Amino acid sequence: MSVNPKVFQISAFLLQYPDEDWRVALDFVRDELADLGEQTETILRPIIDDLRNRELESLQKHYVNTFDFGKKTNLYVTYALHGEQRERGSALLELKQIYKKAGWHMADEELPDYLPLMLEFASISTDGIGLLSRYKENLKVISDELGKAKSLYQNILNFIIMNVDLTEEQQPLAEGVGRHA
Questions:
Q1: Alpha-carbon distance 130 to 180, whole Å?
Q2: Among residues 49, 57, 18, 12, which one has the least CA distance to residue 31?
Q3: How far apart are CA 167 and CA 148, in angstroms?
Q4: Residues in a beta bridge with 76
Q5: DSSP readout, 131-176?
Q6: Which tens digits make up the pLDDT trace of 107-159?
Q7: Distance between CA atoms of 120 and 172, rounded to whole angstroms?
Q8: Where are the domains positioned within the chain?
Q9: Is the pTM of this model over 0.85?
């Protein structure tokens, strides 16, 4: 099965802060699922339906409590490994350099290890998929912590990890981007 890079873009969208515009766009995202294959639709449709059926205020509160206040469940991928340690700065700088080398300009308001940003990059670049592969163990840690917190977002992380696994099976990792030995 081939992975459509759009799955990473949709995953990035699903992990954004849920506001009114996001809520409206969920319907458009749901409509696009059929173009991404039966497996993707089978996994994401119930997630999107669940998100659509929750009250926005409740969803926003859950999002903030999960990602903004949860040290183990935040969306900063290198934080899972380095926390606030100095080594994290090196990892962030390396990510910025990878984005720049690929000709991708990231927004200044986010750190380069912010998962939705990394997913956007993966949707347009095999280097981005290589980064997700490199940090797959960190994604698993976040997913496990989301599971412990009984968060609805765990299914999105599991979907991302599944697609990273599928891309690893399909293509070798880009030189200098994949996992470190």
A1: 11
A2: 49
A3: 27
A4: 114
A5: HHHHTHHHHHHHHHHHHHTT-TTHHHHHHHHHHHHHHHHHSPPPTT
A6: 778 899 999 999 999 999 989 999 999 999 999 999 999 999 999 999 999 99
A7: 20
A8: 6-75+114-170
A9: yes
